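step 4 of 6: structure.
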Amino acid sequence: QSVLTQPPSVSGAPGQRVTISCTGSSSHIGAGYDVHWYQQLPGTAPRLLIFGNSNRPSGVPDRFSGSKSGTSASLAITGLQAEDEADYYCQSYDSSLSGWVFGGGTKLTVL
Amino acid sequence: QITLKESGPTLVKPTQTLTLTCTFSGFSLSTSGVGVGWIRQPPGKALEWLALIYWTDDKRYSPSLKNRLTITKDTSKNQVVLTMTNIDPVDTATYYCAHKGSSWSNWFDPWGQGTLVTVSS
């Protein structure tokens, strides 16, 4: 069971907006540690999508955005495209474990 | 450009010791703040952080696996090695190594392509 909680799946039609939540606790997200997001296309390694809660690495479209509030974070994807169909993972640092933690992953289906 | 690549056995028998090597380029593990981590993903399941080593040789382990893991580095060869003892079928997973750019940045970027390890007799 993953330390961070994500919905198992979300879906949306092309062009729509979807959000993926990531819920944590006072030992990681709530302790002020940043949340990062990864995109994992089928059969490939995870790719950094958002770092530091809301920053996009170069090359990531501005359709992807992140936010954090309290013990939770969210990833928003606007203007959904077929190529966005993938698994998405949130990640943070856990001070009680002295290590890095991931969410259980959310499968995005583009209808 | 930073790249990492994992290597090791694809099939391991239960109770054996697994040794995986991460060979990287585009950065040095002698640079202040830099780290290399290992993360695994069982088939169809979520990512799980295993271990990380810093440029100082400071090592961090997942508490749940700490007794079975050892991470080491060879700076001259640009390699990081992860060993896992007493392997079990539940350890079947794709194992990734990833770059951590600084002491204050708690994200991993980029990742290697991963190597699938199957544990079976």
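step 5 of 6: annotate
 - The two ends of chain A are 28 Å apart (CA to CA).
 - Chain A touches chain B through 26 residues (CB under 8 Å).
step 6 of 6: archive
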